[in-house]
């Protein structure tokens, strides 16, 4: 579904990776290894060279906004540009059920300033899912969940992700939780110094 | 009609008495302002006397070339001022270039329009009309453009996450930056809007004061002032719009990425 060949930025790569429909891939590695930069490069948010294609269509063949609706990237720290939560969502038919699935059914009337980091992460995930992307790039989606309900909420988010996989969407997830890839049935990769191991990756040219 | 009463240089020395008195107060009260006060006053005197001599020479020469040259020098100073007033600037030639280009286009358009269509001196570029007019237009456009660009660049640099969040949802670079664009345009337009609102109520505009002092009928001076204010408003608006959208175009790219790497500076 998503094919990445020789993806390279000044700081990472070259990276090769193929994601199939309904497949999950998990990337772990030390901080500063370039995991977030890798996701940014796929989403075309940073300049990069190489080939990234969705179902055989190169990303350059479509306008960048269209690409980002199909290949959705949810950063670890999401951005909020309005005061109220509801201003960040479009009123789609599935919005209520999505919010319910992440345990935030009433969040629409809340104010962004009063959200916890974990709540922001879950709302950002819902926001990205609204565009019905074919590929999800998630940067530590459950890293900042609030202590009292960690396992419960984690289970909610992972159930939602499994549902996406069942709908033949592909998932590339950066995670520090050693057990999470197993729960999602994900192939594991390790990123270090800008290189993704278990794929062909040479040392970056000096 | 009394006509124009000329001042002698001794009159000017006499006029500076109160300023010197302030300098004495500063010494007595140990305000530490004496130096800056004196330096600024001397600098202003030298600048203005030189400008007077240069303008006199240009008016005497009556040459198109010299008039254009003077206009170019004014533009260069205004462009530098815009550049200096920004906390974060576009890198490379875009830094000084964009503000100057926006001013050049807006200022020239409005000045030429006013000279050729409204005031109609003979010849049309007559320096007595062209240079003061161009100077006023530049001065106001400069203030607007520098405020607009400074606001835009600061807002974008601080709001990177907000802009990128919208880009990631599939919005275009223009949609994702809209709140910041609006903020920048508002900042750029504010001084001229305020000037229009307050003009004549608190103080008489400088040009009108000058005309009245030199014996022009106040009603005629008002007409001139109104024309100037309309031109200033128009030129400032065009300059601010041009500079803001030009800068947005530069700090994003055709793949709808935010390119903060094309901004320099920022004292965090």
TrEMBL record, chain A:
Signal peptide: none annotated. Pfam families: ABC_tran (PF00005). Keywords: ATP-binding, Nucleotide-binding. The keyword Cytoplasm does not apply. One of its GO terms (molecular function) is ATP binding. This is Probable ATP-binding protein. It comes from the Bacteria. The keyword Ion transport does not apply. The lineage of its organism: Bacteria, Pseudomonadati, Pseudomonadota, Alphaproteobacteria, Hyphomicrobiales. PROSITE patterns: ABC_TRANSPORTER_2 (PS50893). InterPro entries: AAA+_ATPase (IPR003593), ABC_transporter-like_ATP-bd (IPR003439), P-loop_NTPase (IPR027417). Residues 2-206 form the ABC transporter domain.
Automatic annotation (TrEMBL), chain B:
The chain crosses the membrane at residues 7-29, 49-77, 98-119, 131-152, 192-214, 226-249. It is a multi-pass membrane protein. It is found in: Membrane. Keywords: Membrane, Transmembrane, Transmembrane helix. It holds the Pfam family UPF0014. GO terms for cellular component: plasma membrane. The keyword Transmembrane helix applies. Belongs to the UPF0014 family. PANTHER family: PROTEIN ALUMINUM SENSITIVE 3, UPF0014 INNER MEMBRANE PROTEIN YBBM-RELATED. This is ABC transport system permease protein. It comes from Roseibium aggregatum (strain ATCC 25650 / DSM 13394 / JCM 20685 / NBRC 16684 / NCIMB 2208 / IAM 12614 / B1) (Stappia aggregata). The lineage of its organism: Bacteria, Pseudomonadati, Pseudomonadota, Alphaproteobacteria, Hyphomicrobiales.
């Amino acid at each position: 579904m998503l094919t990445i060949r020789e993806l390279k930025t000044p700081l990472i790569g070259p990276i090769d990776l193929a994601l199939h429909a309904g497949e999950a891939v998990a990337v772990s590695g030390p901080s500063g290894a370039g995991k977030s930069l890798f996701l940014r490069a796929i989403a075309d948010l940073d300049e990069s060279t190489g080939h990234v294609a969705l179902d055989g269509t190169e990303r350059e063949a479509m306008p960048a906004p269209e690409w980002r609706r199909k290949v959705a990237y949810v950063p670890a720290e999401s951005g909020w540009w309005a005061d109220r939560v509801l201003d960040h969502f479009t009123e789609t038919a599935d919005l209520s059920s999505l919010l319910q699935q992440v345990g935030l059914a009433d969040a629409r009337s809340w104010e962004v300033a009063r959200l916890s980091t974990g709540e922001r992460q879950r709302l950002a995930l819902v926001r990205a899912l609204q565009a019905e992307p074919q590929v999800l790039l998630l940067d530590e989606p459950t890293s900042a969940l609030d202590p009292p309900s960690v396992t419960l909420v984690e289970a909610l988010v992972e159930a939602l992700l499994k549902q996406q996989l069942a709908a033949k969407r592909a998932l590339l997830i950066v995670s520090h939780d050693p057990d999470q890839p197993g729960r999602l049935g994900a192939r594991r990769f390790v990123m270090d110094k800008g290189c993704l191991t278990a794929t062909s990756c040479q040392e970056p040219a000096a | 009609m009394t006509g124009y009463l000329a001042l002698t240089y001794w009159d000017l020395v006499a006029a500076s008495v109160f300023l010197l008195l302030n300098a004495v107060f500063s010494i007595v009260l140990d305000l530490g302002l004496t130096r800056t006060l004196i330096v600024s006053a001397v600098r202003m005197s030298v600048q203005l006397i030189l400008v007077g001599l240069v303008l006199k020479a240009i008016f005497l020469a009556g040459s198109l070339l010299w008039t254009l040259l003077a206009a170019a020098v004014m533009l260069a100073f205004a462009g530098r001022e815009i550049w200096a007033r920004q906390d974060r600037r576009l890198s490379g030639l875009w830094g000084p270039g964009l503000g100057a280009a926006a001013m050049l286009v807006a200022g020239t358009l409005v000045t030429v329009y006013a000279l050729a269509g409204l005031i109609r001196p003979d010849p049309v570029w007559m320096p007595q009309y062209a240079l003061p007019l161009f100077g006023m237009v530049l001065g106001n456009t400069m203030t607007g453009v520098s405020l607009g660009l400074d606001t835009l660049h600061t807002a974008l640099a601080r709001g990177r996450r907000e802009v990128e969040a919208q880009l990631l949802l599939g919005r275009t670079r223009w949609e994702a930056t809209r709140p910041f664009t609006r903020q920048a345009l508002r900042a750029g337009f504010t001084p001229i809007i305020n000037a229009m609102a307050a003009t004549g109520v608190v103080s008489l505009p400088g040009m009108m004061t000058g005309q009245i002092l030199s014996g022009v009928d106040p009603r005629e001076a008002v007409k001139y002032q109104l024309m100037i204010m309309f031109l200033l408003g128009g030129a400032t608006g065009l300059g601010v719009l041009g500079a803001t959208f030009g800068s947005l175009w530069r700090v994003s790219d055709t793949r709808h990425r935010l390119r903060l790497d094309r901004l320099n500076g920022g004292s965090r």
